[in-house]
Design brief:
The protein is mainly β and 473 residues long. The chain has helices at residues 2-7, 432-435, and strands at residues 23-25, 29-30, 36-42, 49-57, 67-75, 81-88, 96-105, 110-119, 124-133, 138-148, 157-162, 168-174, 183-191, 196-205, 209-216, 222-228, 235-240, 245-248, 254-264, 267-276, 289-294, 300-304, 313-324, 327-338, 352-363, 369-376, 384-388, 391-400, 405-414, 420-422, 426-427, 430-431, 444-447, 452-458, 462-469. It is built from 2 helices and 35 strands. A hairpin with a 2-residue loop joins β23 (313-324) and β24 (327-338).
Amino acid sequence: MIKKFITSTLVVVSVAAFAQMKITEGNKFTTDTNLETNEKLVLTDDYNSYMFSVINVDGLMRNVFPHKKLLMRKLDQNGSLIDTYVKDYANKTNGVLHNYLGSQQIDEDRLVAFTEEYFGKENRKEVFQHVFSKKEGTFTTKSIAKYTIESANKSGTTHVLFSENGKFAAVFNDRFSNKKTGNINDVLVMDLRTLSPVWNKEITLSDDYVEKSLTLTNSGKVVLLRKAAGWKESYKLELVSNDEDKDLPFDSKYIPEKLYAISKNDNDYLVAFGRKNATVTIGTSTFGTIMFYDIKSGKAIISNTNLAGSKDMNDVKVIKTIVKGDEVLMAIQQETVTRPQETPMNRFPDPVYKLESGVLIKFNKEGEVKQFVPVGTSTGRRIQVIESGDNLYVSSFYPKGAFGNTGFSMKVYDFNGLVPKELNANYNGKNFFMNYGFADGNLIQYVPNTNKLMFLEKGAKDFQMVSIYNFIK
């Protein structure tokens, strides 16, 4: 299967001349598929690539202590496994709880992951950063924040945010609050390149609103979407930085659900997904109306789209943002949530989150939605968007056959018109992508220096790398 997946690879865009392709495949390597999650291909260059994954399992599954590990697997130029680096971030003390918070590649050499541990007996919570350097081949761990908590059950929620431009990270400690303690929170914003604090302060928020969505701007400011406590349909946007804390006014009839911060011409903007003046019913969530908000001027442009989703729609994931001149393009993916039926063995089953259809959304100079182009159907996998010149290479999935099978599709879109053209690699009379490819977007990377596209294919029990040279003509 992988052999076909490989050899059939890209003959480049169907309208381009054929180029001599070099195709390599690495040896298969196994992982603990029952425990490992968040797999992604990172730190890629002309010689090596790395697969990052996380084990974040609580309970007494296999031994006395929970499984809490960060893993970095080093692959050679052909994609064969040559080394594995493991960081166990669990404090081996009974009663100490741990949680993985998020990770981000810092530069060509480093990736940072954030974790927390909290211990009710000592009334403390602590946040750690773990920096992996491929040059050193090690994880370096440092405590970056300590908080006082009432108990393990009253420890609040820790959020880690990353700015869209990759320059900042923020730790937002949403403390447990009640009438006695008030709504007090802690914010730490860091320069992601140096991992040094930019600003750090305690903020007090009103008790009549609760936090719903957070985002970090490209200038290192935090914007909170807050909803009125109870059933009242009232929302507010609050901007917090080192020297200010203010409300951002917007149309009171607009009901935002999710915030995302971007920048254009060195100005900060918000893109909010939500609805306007719509009837709200229990269990539904609508994201079909998009607000493009200028933070500096307070000007908001609201556009209606087809991003209404189903009653199971839970979130919008922003995959990539591209700014060209005065236009902004966002590649997003819809997420749904379903709640399995309870069973005698599991009275409270965990909800199931699934990535669904992807969409390209382009905003014009004024902030209106100019184009809205679906790019794939539901498979539960993440799309990938690769930018090269004025073209976008988008991986997605589509259903084929009467039995619900799926195939991999890679299409090229010109930025101006967003007109898709199927990439067609003719292998044994079949299109390589539509018949053999099958990779999650987090496991696809493009290396411009060598014009190489890499797919890290996940099987039932193993992974295998396929590298395609001369991807773009």
